[in-house]
Amino acid sequence: MQKQIDPQPVVARPSSNPVSRYWFQRNRRWLGDVGTIALLLLVLFPFAWLVQMSFRPNRDILGYELLFTPTLAHYKALWTGAFPASFVNSMITSICSTVLALLLGVPAAYALSRGGFKSSRRIALWILATRMAPPIAFTIPFFLAYRYLGLSDTLLGLIIVYLTFNLALVIWMMQPFFDGVPRELEEAAWIDGCSVWEAFRRVTLPLSAPGLAATAVICFILSWNDFFYALVLTRTNASTAPVAIVNFIQYTGWEWGRIAAAGTLVMLPVVVFSVLVRNYLVRGLAAGGVKE
Amino acid sequence: MPAKRLGWIAHRQRSFLAGMAPALVVLALITIAPAIYLVLTSLTPLNLTLPGSAWDFSSPAGNYIDLFEDPRFSRSVWVQVKLSVATVILQLLVGLGVALLLNGGTRIRELARSGFLIPMVLPPIVVGILWRVMYAVDISPFHRFMAFIGLPVPSLITDPNWALFAIVIAETWEWFPFTMLMVLAALQMIPASPLEAARIDGANNLQIFRYVMFPYIQQTLVVAAIFRLIDSIKAFPLIFVLTDGGPGDVTEVTNYYAYRQAFTFSLWGYGSAIATLMVVGIFVLSWVIDRLTGAAYAEAD
Protein backbone atom coordinates (compact mmCIF):
# COMPACT_ATOMS: atom_id res chain seq x y z
CA MET A 1 0.00 0.00 0.00
CA GLN A 2 1.28 3.37 -0.91
CA LYS A 3 1.85 6.10 1.55
CA GLN A 4 -0.33 9.11 1.10
CA ILE A 5 1.61 11.90 -0.57
CA ASP A 6 2.05 14.92 1.57
CA PRO A 7 0.39 17.84 -0.23
CA GLN A 8 2.65 20.34 1.52
CA PRO A 9 5.73 21.44 -0.40
CA VAL A 10 8.95 19.87 0.85
CA VAL A 11 10.84 23.13 0.98
CA ALA A 12 9.26 25.75 3.16
CA ARG A 13 9.19 28.96 1.18
CA PRO A 14 9.88 32.22 2.95
CA SER A 15 6.62 33.75 1.91
CA SER A 16 4.23 35.61 4.13
CA ASN A 17 1.15 34.72 2.14
CA PRO A 18 1.48 31.37 0.41
CA VAL A 19 -1.97 31.52 -1.21
CA SER A 20 -1.35 34.72 -3.17
CA ARG A 21 2.15 33.57 -3.95
CA TYR A 22 0.96 30.33 -5.53
CA TRP A 23 -1.77 32.13 -7.37
CA PHE A 24 0.83 34.45 -8.79
CA GLN A 25 3.16 31.60 -9.69
CA ARG A 26 0.43 29.67 -11.43
CA ASN A 27 -0.79 32.66 -13.41
CA ARG A 28 2.50 34.31 -14.14
CA ARG A 29 2.37 33.52 -17.84
CA TRP A 30 -0.75 35.42 -18.68
CA LEU A 31 -0.04 38.05 -16.04
CA GLY A 32 3.24 38.70 -17.80
CA ASP A 33 1.47 38.91 -21.14
CA VAL A 34 -1.02 41.42 -19.78
CA GLY A 35 1.82 43.40 -18.27
CA THR A 36 3.67 43.34 -21.58
CA ILE A 37 0.69 44.65 -23.50
CA ALA A 38 0.00 47.38 -20.94
CA LEU A 39 3.63 48.46 -21.01
CA LEU A 40 3.73 48.40 -24.79
CA LEU A 41 0.66 50.64 -24.98
CA LEU A 42 2.25 53.02 -22.49
CA VAL A 43 5.54 53.16 -24.39
CA LEU A 44 3.92 53.64 -27.77
CA PHE A 45 1.41 56.20 -26.51
CA PRO A 46 3.37 59.33 -27.57
CA PHE A 47 3.93 57.74 -30.98
CA ALA A 48 0.25 56.87 -31.45
CA TRP A 49 -0.78 60.31 -30.25
CA LEU A 50 1.24 62.01 -32.96
CA VAL A 51 -0.27 59.77 -35.63
CA GLN A 52 -3.85 60.43 -34.52
CA MET A 53 -3.13 64.18 -34.36
CA SER A 54 -2.19 64.12 -38.03
CA PHE A 55 -5.72 62.97 -38.91
CA ARG A 56 -7.58 65.31 -36.60
CA PRO A 57 -9.43 68.20 -38.20
CA ASN A 58 -7.97 71.60 -37.37
CA ARG A 59 -10.92 72.91 -35.42
CA ASP A 60 -10.56 70.26 -32.74
CA ILE A 61 -6.84 69.63 -33.06
CA LEU A 62 -6.58 70.10 -29.31
CA GLY A 63 -9.37 67.66 -28.64
CA TYR A 64 -8.82 64.37 -26.91
CA GLU A 65 -12.13 62.71 -27.70
CA LEU A 66 -11.44 59.31 -29.11
CA LEU A 67 -14.07 59.73 -31.77
CA PHE A 68 -13.51 62.23 -34.51
CA THR A 69 -13.90 62.29 -38.25
CA PRO A 70 -10.43 61.70 -39.64
CA THR A 71 -9.30 64.11 -42.29
CA LEU A 72 -6.47 64.12 -44.78
CA ALA A 73 -6.44 67.93 -44.84
CA HIS A 74 -3.02 68.17 -43.20
CA TYR A 75 -1.48 65.75 -45.66
CA LYS A 76 -3.02 67.64 -48.57
CA ALA A 77 -1.65 70.90 -47.19
CA LEU A 78 1.78 69.34 -47.00
CA TRP A 79 1.55 68.15 -50.57
CA THR A 80 1.23 71.70 -51.89
CA GLY A 81 4.17 73.10 -49.90
CA ALA A 82 7.92 72.52 -50.05
CA PHE A 83 7.64 69.25 -48.19
CA PRO A 84 7.39 66.80 -51.13
CA ALA A 85 10.64 68.12 -52.60
CA SER A 86 12.44 67.56 -49.32
CA PHE A 87 10.96 64.08 -49.09
CA VAL A 88 12.41 63.33 -52.53
CA ASN A 89 15.76 64.78 -51.39
CA SER A 90 15.72 62.44 -48.41
CA MET A 91 15.02 59.50 -50.68
CA ILE A 92 17.78 60.40 -53.14
CA THR A 93 20.46 61.04 -50.52
CA SER A 94 19.60 57.96 -48.47
CA ILE A 95 19.47 55.60 -51.42
CA CYS A 96 22.56 56.98 -53.18
CA SER A 97 24.61 56.98 -50.01
CA THR A 98 23.54 53.42 -49.22
CA VAL A 99 24.39 52.19 -52.72
CA LEU A 100 27.76 53.96 -52.72
CA ALA A 101 28.62 52.61 -49.29
CA LEU A 102 27.75 49.09 -50.42
CA LEU A 103 29.74 49.37 -53.66
CA LEU A 104 32.83 50.52 -51.80
CA GLY A 105 32.37 48.68 -48.54
CA VAL A 106 31.28 45.19 -49.59
CA PRO A 107 34.47 44.30 -51.50
CA ALA A 108 36.52 45.79 -48.67
CA ALA A 109 34.67 43.70 -46.09
CA TYR A 110 35.23 40.59 -48.18
CA ALA A 111 38.92 41.35 -48.61
CA LEU A 112 39.27 41.92 -44.88
CA SER A 113 37.45 38.69 -44.17
CA ARG A 114 39.61 36.58 -46.52
CA GLY A 115 42.88 38.42 -46.91
CA GLY A 116 44.32 37.71 -43.47
CA PHE A 117 45.94 41.13 -43.45
CA LYS A 118 48.08 42.02 -40.49
CA SER A 119 46.61 45.50 -40.34
CA SER A 120 42.98 44.33 -40.16
CA ARG A 121 42.87 44.93 -36.40
CA ARG A 122 44.06 48.46 -36.91
CA ILE A 123 41.41 49.00 -39.58
CA ALA A 124 38.77 47.69 -37.19
CA LEU A 125 39.90 50.21 -34.56
CA TRP A 126 39.79 52.99 -37.12
CA ILE A 127 36.24 52.04 -38.04
CA LEU A 128 35.26 51.95 -34.39
CA ALA A 129 36.79 55.40 -33.89
CA THR A 130 34.69 56.72 -36.79
CA ARG A 131 31.62 55.32 -35.09
CA MET A 132 32.52 56.95 -31.76
CA ALA A 133 33.52 60.42 -32.97
CA PRO A 134 30.86 63.11 -32.44
CA PRO A 135 29.24 64.39 -35.66
CA ILE A 136 30.14 67.96 -34.73
CA ALA A 137 33.79 67.01 -35.31
CA PHE A 138 32.89 66.15 -38.92
CA THR A 139 30.39 68.91 -39.60
CA ILE A 140 32.74 71.81 -38.90
CA PRO A 141 35.45 70.75 -41.38
CA PHE A 142 32.89 69.55 -43.93
CA PHE A 143 30.98 72.83 -43.72
CA LEU A 144 34.15 74.88 -44.20
CA ALA A 145 35.45 72.66 -47.01
CA TYR A 146 32.10 72.62 -48.81
CA ARG A 147 32.09 76.39 -48.99
CA TYR A 148 35.20 76.22 -51.14
CA LEU A 149 34.23 73.11 -53.07
CA GLY A 150 30.77 74.46 -53.89
CA LEU A 151 29.15 71.45 -52.28
CA SER A 152 27.15 73.21 -49.58
CA ASP A 153 23.41 72.80 -49.97
CA THR A 154 23.83 70.05 -52.58
CA LEU A 155 22.61 66.47 -52.52
CA LEU A 156 26.07 65.23 -53.49
CA GLY A 157 27.54 66.94 -50.44
CA LEU A 158 25.10 65.16 -48.15
CA ILE A 159 25.68 61.82 -49.85
CA ILE A 160 29.41 62.14 -49.22
CA VAL A 161 28.90 63.09 -45.57
CA TYR A 162 26.60 60.11 -45.00
CA LEU A 163 29.42 57.88 -46.20
CA THR A 164 31.31 58.81 -43.03
CA PHE A 165 29.04 56.54 -41.05
CA ASN A 166 27.62 54.25 -43.76
CA LEU A 167 30.93 53.07 -45.20
CA ALA A 168 32.30 52.11 -41.80
CA LEU A 169 29.03 50.39 -41.00
CA VAL A 170 29.02 48.32 -44.19
CA ILE A 171 32.59 47.12 -43.65
CA TRP A 172 31.83 46.27 -40.04
CA MET A 173 28.54 44.51 -40.66
CA MET A 174 29.39 42.54 -43.78
CA GLN A 175 32.62 41.03 -42.49
CA PRO A 176 31.00 38.47 -40.14
CA PHE A 177 28.56 37.46 -42.89
CA PHE A 178 31.46 36.70 -45.22
CA ASP A 179 33.29 34.92 -42.41
CA GLY A 180 30.28 32.63 -42.22
CA VAL A 181 30.50 31.51 -45.87
CA PRO A 182 32.68 28.38 -46.19
CA ARG A 183 35.88 29.07 -48.10
CA GLU A 184 35.70 25.68 -49.81
CA LEU A 185 32.92 26.97 -52.05
CA GLU A 186 35.09 29.80 -53.37
CA GLU A 187 38.07 27.53 -53.76
CA ALA A 188 35.97 25.22 -55.91
CA ALA A 189 35.01 28.20 -58.06
CA TRP A 190 38.65 29.27 -58.36
CA ILE A 191 39.62 25.80 -59.50
CA ASP A 192 36.87 25.99 -62.09
CA GLY A 193 38.63 29.04 -63.46
CA CYS A 194 36.82 31.92 -61.78
CA SER A 195 38.89 34.93 -60.80
CA VAL A 196 38.83 36.06 -57.17
CA TRP A 197 36.15 38.65 -57.75
CA GLU A 198 34.14 36.47 -60.11
CA ALA A 199 33.99 33.78 -57.44
CA PHE A 200 32.95 36.44 -54.94
CA ARG A 201 30.18 37.72 -57.17
CA ARG A 202 28.86 34.31 -58.17
CA VAL A 203 29.31 32.31 -54.96
CA THR A 204 29.93 34.32 -51.80
CA LEU A 205 27.76 37.32 -52.44
CA PRO A 206 24.55 35.39 -53.23
CA LEU A 207 25.09 33.34 -50.06
CA SER A 208 25.36 36.53 -48.01
CA ALA A 209 22.28 38.09 -49.54
CA PRO A 210 20.26 38.31 -46.28
CA GLY A 211 23.14 40.07 -44.56
CA LEU A 212 23.53 42.40 -47.52
CA ALA A 213 19.84 43.29 -47.40
CA ALA A 214 19.94 43.94 -43.67
CA THR A 215 23.03 46.11 -44.01
CA ALA A 216 21.45 48.10 -46.83
CA VAL A 217 18.30 48.71 -44.81
CA ILE A 218 20.25 49.86 -41.76
CA CYS A 219 22.34 52.24 -43.88
CA PHE A 220 19.14 53.61 -45.35
CA ILE A 221 17.59 54.10 -41.91
CA LEU A 222 20.66 55.88 -40.53
CA SER A 223 20.82 58.25 -43.51
CA TRP A 224 17.09 58.81 -43.53
CA ASN A 225 17.08 59.61 -39.81
CA ASP A 226 19.96 62.05 -39.98
CA PHE A 227 19.08 65.51 -38.82
CA PHE A 228 22.29 67.15 -37.71
CA TYR A 229 24.32 66.91 -40.93
CA ALA A 230 21.39 67.95 -43.08
CA LEU A 231 20.59 70.87 -40.79
CA VAL A 232 24.10 72.23 -41.00
CA LEU A 233 25.02 71.44 -44.60
CA THR A 234 21.81 72.32 -46.43
CA ARG A 235 19.70 75.42 -46.67
CA THR A 236 16.89 75.22 -49.22
CA ASN A 237 17.84 73.24 -52.34
CA ALA A 238 18.97 70.03 -50.72
CA SER A 239 17.15 70.13 -47.40
CA THR A 240 15.89 66.72 -46.35
CA ALA A 241 12.54 65.90 -44.80
CA PRO A 242 13.63 66.15 -41.13
CA VAL A 243 15.10 69.60 -41.82
CA ALA A 244 12.02 70.62 -43.78
CA ILE A 245 9.91 69.97 -40.68
CA VAL A 246 12.10 72.27 -38.64
CA ASN A 247 12.15 75.00 -41.28
CA PHE A 248 8.43 74.70 -41.47
CA ILE A 249 8.13 75.19 -37.69
CA GLN A 250 10.38 78.23 -37.90
CA TYR A 251 8.33 79.87 -40.65
CA THR A 252 4.77 79.08 -39.66
CA GLY A 253 5.02 78.34 -35.95
CA TRP A 254 3.72 75.23 -34.24
CA GLU A 255 0.95 74.26 -36.60
CA TRP A 256 0.34 70.95 -34.88
CA GLY A 257 -1.74 69.16 -37.47
CA ARG A 258 0.67 69.68 -40.30
CA ILE A 259 3.72 68.96 -38.13
CA ALA A 260 2.12 65.72 -36.99
CA ALA A 261 1.37 64.75 -40.58
CA ALA A 262 4.94 65.52 -41.69
CA GLY A 263 6.33 63.59 -38.73
CA THR A 264 4.14 60.62 -39.54
CA LEU A 265 5.28 60.60 -43.16
CA VAL A 266 8.94 60.83 -42.18
CA MET A 267 8.77 57.96 -39.74
CA LEU A 268 6.66 55.67 -41.91
CA PRO A 269 9.44 54.12 -44.04
CA VAL A 270 11.68 53.66 -41.04
CA VAL A 271 9.08 51.84 -38.97
CA VAL A 272 8.29 49.47 -41.83
CA PHE A 273 11.95 48.76 -42.55
CA SER A 274 12.99 48.30 -38.96
CA VAL A 275 10.49 45.53 -38.39
CA LEU A 276 11.99 43.75 -41.40
CA VAL A 277 15.55 43.87 -40.09
CA ARG A 278 14.75 43.60 -36.42
CA ASN A 279 17.19 40.80 -35.78
CA TYR A 280 20.13 42.64 -37.30
CA LEU A 281 19.44 45.98 -35.66
CA VAL A 282 21.63 45.35 -32.66
CA ARG A 283 24.59 44.42 -34.77
CA GLY A 284 24.10 47.48 -36.95
CA LEU A 285 23.52 50.06 -34.28
CA ALA A 286 26.14 48.67 -31.96
CA ALA A 287 28.63 48.22 -34.80
CA GLY A 288 31.98 47.77 -33.24
CA GLY A 289 30.74 46.68 -29.85
CA VAL A 290 28.98 43.39 -30.30
CA LYS A 291 31.45 40.61 -30.52
CA GLU A 292 30.27 37.80 -32.70
CA MET B 1 54.26 23.73 -59.36
CA PRO B 2 54.99 25.53 -56.00
CA ALA B 3 56.02 28.59 -57.94
CA LYS B 4 52.70 28.59 -59.72
CA ARG B 5 50.86 28.16 -56.41
CA LEU B 6 52.82 31.03 -54.88
CA GLY B 7 51.95 33.09 -57.92
CA TRP B 8 48.26 32.38 -57.40
CA ILE B 9 48.44 33.33 -53.70
CA ALA B 10 50.24 36.56 -54.51
CA HIS B 11 47.74 37.26 -57.24
CA ARG B 12 44.87 36.57 -54.82
CA GLN B 13 46.30 38.89 -52.17
CA ARG B 14 46.75 41.59 -54.79
CA SER B 15 43.11 41.18 -55.78
CA PHE B 16 42.05 41.51 -52.16
CA LEU B 17 44.14 44.65 -51.76
CA ALA B 18 42.62 46.08 -54.92
CA GLY B 19 39.15 45.40 -53.52
CA MET B 20 39.96 47.05 -50.23
CA ALA B 21 41.85 50.07 -51.53
CA PRO B 22 38.95 52.24 -52.80
CA ALA B 23 37.04 51.94 -49.53
CA LEU B 24 40.07 52.74 -47.42
CA VAL B 25 41.06 55.70 -49.60
CA VAL B 26 37.54 57.13 -49.41
CA LEU B 27 37.33 56.46 -45.68
CA ALA B 28 40.64 58.24 -45.15
CA LEU B 29 39.50 61.20 -47.26
CA ILE B 30 36.25 61.61 -45.36
CA THR B 31 37.43 60.85 -41.84
CA ILE B 32 41.14 61.49 -41.41
CA ALA B 33 41.37 64.58 -43.61
CA PRO B 34 38.48 66.32 -41.78
CA ALA B 35 40.01 65.36 -38.43
CA ILE B 36 43.28 67.04 -39.40
CA TYR B 37 41.44 70.07 -40.73
CA LEU B 38 39.44 70.26 -37.49
CA VAL B 39 42.54 70.25 -35.31
CA LEU B 40 44.25 72.84 -37.53
CA THR B 41 41.18 75.09 -37.43
CA SER B 42 41.07 74.79 -33.66
CA LEU B 43 44.50 76.44 -33.57
CA THR B 44 43.25 79.54 -35.42
CA PRO B 45 40.79 82.25 -34.48
CA LEU B 46 38.79 81.46 -37.64
CA ASN B 47 35.72 83.64 -38.01
CA LEU B 48 34.15 83.77 -41.44
CA THR B 49 33.30 87.44 -41.02
CA LEU B 50 36.97 88.30 -40.48
CA PRO B 51 39.01 87.69 -43.64
CA GLY B 52 42.52 86.46 -42.98
CA SER B 53 41.59 84.60 -39.81
CA ALA B 54 41.60 81.23 -41.59
CA TRP B 55 45.25 80.28 -41.41
CA ASP B 56 46.34 82.60 -38.64
CA PHE B 57 48.45 80.46 -36.31
CA SER B 58 49.86 83.38 -34.32
CA SER B 59 48.43 82.11 -31.04
CA PRO B 60 47.76 78.40 -31.54
CA ALA B 61 46.67 77.70 -27.98
CA GLY B 62 44.42 80.77 -27.81
CA ASN B 63 41.12 78.93 -28.17
CA TYR B 64 42.09 76.31 -25.62
CA ILE B 65 43.16 78.91 -23.08
CA ASP B 66 39.86 80.74 -23.61
CA LEU B 67 37.98 77.48 -23.13
CA PHE B 68 39.43 76.86 -19.71
CA GLU B 69 38.33 80.32 -18.61
CA ASP B 70 34.89 80.06 -20.20
CA PRO B 71 32.32 79.35 -17.47
CA ARG B 72 29.68 78.52 -20.06
CA PHE B 73 31.90 75.76 -21.42
CA SER B 74 32.48 74.23 -17.99
CA ARG B 75 28.76 74.49 -17.27
CA SER B 76 28.04 72.67 -20.53
CA VAL B 77 30.39 69.85 -19.51
CA TRP B 78 28.57 69.56 -16.19
CA VAL B 79 25.17 69.48 -17.93
CA GLN B 80 26.58 66.77 -20.18
CA VAL B 81 27.75 64.70 -17.22
CA LYS B 82 24.34 64.94 -15.54
CA LEU B 83 22.50 64.06 -18.74
CA SER B 84 24.78 61.16 -19.61
CA VAL B 85 24.82 59.58 -16.16
CA ALA B 86 21.07 59.88 -15.68
CA THR B 87 20.09 58.60 -19.12
CA VAL B 88 22.56 55.72 -19.18
CA ILE B 89 21.46 54.45 -15.75
CA LEU B 90 17.76 54.81 -16.58
CA GLN B 91 18.18 53.15 -19.98
CA LEU B 92 20.00 50.22 -18.45
CA LEU B 93 17.36 49.73 -15.76
CA VAL B 94 14.37 50.09 -18.06
CA GLY B 95 15.99 48.10 -20.86
CA LEU B 96 16.94 45.29 -18.49
CA GLY B 97 13.47 45.23 -16.93
CA VAL B 98 11.65 45.07 -20.24
CA ALA B 99 14.09 42.44 -21.55
CA LEU B 100 13.43 40.23 -18.50
CA LEU B 101 9.70 40.63 -19.06
CA LEU B 102 9.94 39.83 -22.77
CA ASN B 103 12.15 36.84 -22.11
CA GLY B 104 9.05 35.01 -20.87
CA GLY B 105 8.81 33.18 -24.17
CA THR B 106 5.14 33.53 -25.04
CA ARG B 107 3.89 34.39 -28.49
CA ILE B 108 2.54 37.76 -27.36
CA ARG B 109 5.86 38.79 -25.89
CA GLU B 110 7.67 37.66 -28.99
CA LEU B 111 5.43 39.93 -31.05
CA ALA B 112 5.68 42.80 -28.56
CA ARG B 113 9.41 42.94 -29.16
CA SER B 114 8.95 44.60 -32.55
CA GLY B 115 6.70 47.18 -30.94
CA PHE B 116 9.18 48.04 -28.20
CA LEU B 117 11.96 48.81 -30.62
CA ILE B 118 9.99 51.49 -32.45
CA PRO B 119 11.26 54.41 -30.32
CA MET B 120 14.85 53.57 -31.19
CA VAL B 121 14.41 53.57 -34.96
CA LEU B 122 12.22 56.66 -35.26
CA PRO B 123 13.98 59.64 -36.80
CA PRO B 124 15.34 61.60 -33.81
CA ILE B 125 13.61 64.73 -35.07
CA VAL B 126 10.26 62.94 -34.87
CA VAL B 127 11.09 61.78 -31.34
CA GLY B 128 11.73 65.42 -30.51
CA ILE B 129 8.43 66.49 -32.02
CA LEU B 130 6.35 63.88 -30.29
CA TRP B 131 7.88 64.74 -26.92
CA ARG B 132 7.37 68.40 -27.70
CA VAL B 133 3.69 67.52 -28.05
CA MET B 134 3.78 65.64 -24.73
CA TYR B 135 5.36 68.63 -22.98
CA ALA B 136 3.21 71.37 -24.53
CA VAL B 137 0.70 72.46 -21.89
CA ASP B 138 -2.12 73.32 -24.27
CA ILE B 139 -1.99 70.13 -26.35
CA SER B 140 -0.37 67.37 -24.31
CA PRO B 141 -2.80 64.68 -23.15
CA PHE B 142 -0.86 64.44 -19.89
CA HIS B 143 -1.09 68.14 -19.07
CA ARG B 144 -4.73 68.29 -20.10
CA PHE B 145 -5.54 65.33 -17.92
CA MET B 146 -3.79 66.90 -14.93
CA ALA B 147 -5.67 70.16 -15.55
CA PHE B 148 -8.91 68.22 -15.87
CA ILE B 149 -8.53 66.60 -12.44
CA GLY B 150 -7.63 69.98 -10.96
CA LEU B 151 -3.87 69.55 -10.67
CA PRO B 152 -2.44 71.64 -13.52
CA VAL B 153 1.30 71.07 -14.00
CA PRO B 154 3.50 73.71 -15.63
CA SER B 155 5.44 72.61 -18.69
CA LEU B 156 8.63 70.78 -17.83
CA ILE B 157 10.66 72.12 -20.73
CA THR B 158 10.24 75.79 -19.80
CA ASP B 159 11.09 75.26 -16.15
CA PRO B 160 14.85 75.60 -15.49
CA ASN B 161 14.64 73.06 -12.67
CA TRP B 162 12.93 70.42 -14.76
CA ALA B 163 14.05 71.00 -18.35
CA LEU B 164 17.00 68.63 -18.15
CA PHE B 165 14.78 66.03 -16.52
CA ALA B 166 12.36 66.36 -19.45
CA ILE B 167 15.24 65.65 -21.85
CA VAL B 168 16.32 62.68 -19.75
CA ILE B 169 12.83 61.16 -20.00
CA ALA B 170 12.66 61.62 -23.75
CA GLU B 171 16.19 60.31 -24.26
CA THR B 172 15.49 57.27 -22.08
CA TRP B 173 12.29 56.58 -23.98
CA GLU B 174 14.16 56.79 -27.26
CA TRP B 175 17.07 54.55 -26.34
CA PHE B 176 15.99 51.96 -23.75
CA PRO B 177 15.17 49.54 -26.65
CA PHE B 178 18.86 49.40 -27.45
CA THR B 179 19.73 47.93 -24.05
CA MET B 180 16.58 45.83 -24.21
CA LEU B 181 17.56 44.20 -27.51
CA MET B 182 21.12 43.59 -26.44
CA VAL B 183 20.11 42.11 -23.09
CA LEU B 184 17.42 39.97 -24.72
CA ALA B 185 19.99 38.53 -27.11
CA ALA B 186 22.24 37.75 -24.15
CA LEU B 187 19.40 36.23 -22.10
CA GLN B 188 18.55 33.89 -24.92
CA MET B 189 22.11 32.60 -24.96
CA ILE B 190 21.91 31.42 -21.33
CA PRO B 191 21.89 27.61 -21.25
CA ALA B 192 18.84 26.09 -19.61
CA SER B 193 20.64 23.72 -17.23
CA PRO B 194 22.00 26.22 -14.64
CA LEU B 195 18.56 27.82 -14.44
CA GLU B 196 16.94 24.42 -13.89
CA ALA B 197 19.52 23.48 -11.30
CA ALA B 198 18.98 26.70 -9.37
CA ARG B 199 15.23 26.24 -9.45
CA ILE B 200 15.48 22.65 -8.16
CA ASP B 201 17.76 23.88 -5.38
CA GLY B 202 14.92 26.18 -4.35
CA ALA B 203 16.41 29.52 -5.37
CA ASN B 204 13.83 32.30 -5.62
CA ASN B 205 13.49 34.53 -8.67
CA LEU B 206 15.69 37.25 -7.26
CA GLN B 207 18.45 34.78 -6.41
CA ILE B 208 18.19 33.19 -9.86
CA PHE B 209 18.54 36.60 -11.45
CA ARG B 210 21.41 37.71 -9.24
CA TYR B 211 23.51 34.56 -9.21
CA VAL B 212 22.61 32.70 -12.39
CA MET B 213 21.42 35.14 -15.03
CA PHE B 214 23.32 38.27 -14.09
CA PRO B 215 26.81 36.83 -14.67
CA TYR B 216 25.75 35.91 -18.20
CA ILE B 217 24.47 39.37 -19.11
CA GLN B 218 26.97 41.46 -17.16
CA GLN B 219 29.30 42.01 -20.08
CA THR B 220 26.41 42.88 -22.40
CA LEU B 221 25.26 45.50 -19.91
CA VAL B 222 28.72 47.03 -19.85
CA VAL B 223 28.89 47.15 -23.65
CA ALA B 224 25.42 48.67 -23.87
CA ALA B 225 26.37 51.25 -21.25
CA ILE B 226 29.53 52.23 -23.13
CA PHE B 227 27.63 52.66 -26.38
CA ARG B 228 24.86 54.67 -24.82
CA LEU B 229 27.35 56.76 -22.83
CA ILE B 230 29.28 57.67 -25.96
CA ASP B 231 26.14 58.30 -27.98
CA SER B 232 24.68 60.46 -25.21
CA ILE B 233 27.58 62.85 -25.79
CA LYS B 234 26.24 63.40 -29.30
CA ALA B 235 22.75 64.37 -28.10
CA PHE B 236 21.45 67.02 -30.47
CA PRO B 237 18.03 66.73 -32.13
CA LEU B 238 16.10 66.27 -28.89
CA ILE B 239 17.68 69.33 -27.31
CA PHE B 240 17.28 71.29 -30.54
CA VAL B 241 13.54 70.65 -30.73
CA LEU B 242 12.61 70.53 -27.04
CA THR B 243 14.56 73.29 -25.33
CA ASP B 244 17.12 74.79 -27.74
CA GLY B 245 19.62 74.57 -24.88
CA GLY B 246 17.40 76.60 -22.59
CA PRO B 247 15.87 77.90 -20.45
CA GLY B 248 19.03 79.98 -20.08
CA ASP B 249 21.68 77.35 -20.66
CA VAL B 250 20.47 74.60 -18.32
CA THR B 251 20.18 72.02 -21.10
CA GLU B 252 23.11 73.23 -23.19
CA VAL B 253 25.37 70.20 -23.46
CA THR B 254 28.90 70.51 -24.81
CA ASN B 255 27.89 69.31 -28.27
CA TYR B 256 25.22 71.98 -28.42
CA TYR B 257 27.61 74.64 -27.19
CA ALA B 258 30.10 73.74 -29.93
CA TYR B 259 27.32 73.89 -32.51
CA ARG B 260 26.28 77.34 -31.28
CA GLN B 261 29.79 78.74 -31.24
CA ALA B 262 30.47 77.55 -34.78
CA PHE B 263 27.16 77.77 -36.59
CA THR B 264 25.37 80.55 -34.73
CA PHE B 265 28.21 82.87 -33.71
CA SER B 266 30.54 81.90 -36.60
CA LEU B 267 33.41 81.33 -34.17
CA TRP B 268 34.78 78.40 -36.13
CA GLY B 269 38.14 78.24 -34.42
CA TYR B 270 36.53 78.19 -31.01
CA GLY B 271 33.89 75.64 -32.05
CA SER B 272 36.61 73.44 -33.53
CA ALA B 273 38.54 73.58 -30.26
CA ILE B 274 35.46 72.36 -28.37
CA ALA B 275 34.88 69.60 -30.93
CA THR B 276 38.52 68.55 -30.73
CA LEU B 277 38.30 68.34 -26.95
CA MET B 278 35.13 66.27 -27.32
CA VAL B 279 36.85 63.79 -29.63
CA VAL B 280 39.81 63.55 -27.25
CA GLY B 281 37.43 63.17 -24.31
CA ILE B 282 35.50 60.37 -26.01
CA PHE B 283 38.66 58.47 -26.90
CA VAL B 284 40.12 58.87 -23.40
CA LEU B 285 36.79 57.75 -21.93
CA SER B 286 36.65 54.67 -24.19
CA TRP B 287 40.22 53.82 -23.35
CA VAL B 288 39.64 54.15 -19.60
CA ILE B 289 36.45 52.08 -19.74
CA ASP B 290 38.21 49.47 -21.84
CA ARG B 291 41.04 49.24 -19.31
CA LEU B 292 38.70 49.17 -16.32
CA THR B 293 36.34 46.54 -17.71
CA GLY B 294 39.24 44.58 -19.18
CA ALA B 295 40.87 44.47 -15.75
CA ALA B 296 37.59 43.46 -14.13
CA TYR B 297 37.15 40.59 -16.57
CA ALA B 298 40.73 39.45 -16.16
CA GLU B 299 40.07 39.29 -12.42
CA ALA B 300 36.76 37.48 -12.85
CA ASP B 301 38.22 34.83 -15.13
Structure description:
The complex is a heterodimer of chains A (292) and B (301). Chain A is mainly alpha-helical and 292 residues long. Chain A folds into 2 domains: 18-72, no CATH class; 77-285, MetI-like fold (Orthogonal Bundle), CATH 1.10.3720.10. Chain A is built from 14 helices and no strands. In chain A, helix 7 (155-179) runs antiparallel to helix 10. The N and C termini of chain A lie far apart (58 Å). The model of chain A is unreliable at 1-13 and 288-292 (pLDDT under 50). With 301 residues, chain B is mainly α. Chain B has one domain (63-300): MetI-like fold (Orthogonal Bundle). Chain B has helices spanning 2-42, 62-68, 71-102, 107-116, 118-121, 124-135, 141-148, 163-187, 192-200, 205-232, 237-242, 254-264, 268-300. In chain B, helix 3 (71-102) packs across helix 12 and helix 12 runs antiparallel to helix 13. In chain B, 39% of the residues are buried. The mean pLDDT of chain B is 85. At the A-B interface, helix 2, helix 4, helix 5, helix 6 and helix 7 of A face helix 1, helix 3, helix 4, helix 5 and helix 6 of B.
Identify the overall geometry of chain B: globular
Tell me the series of helices and strands of chain B, N- to C-terminal: HHHHHHHHHHHHH
Mean pLDDT of chain B: 85
Look at the helices and sheets of chain A and give the structural class: mainly alpha
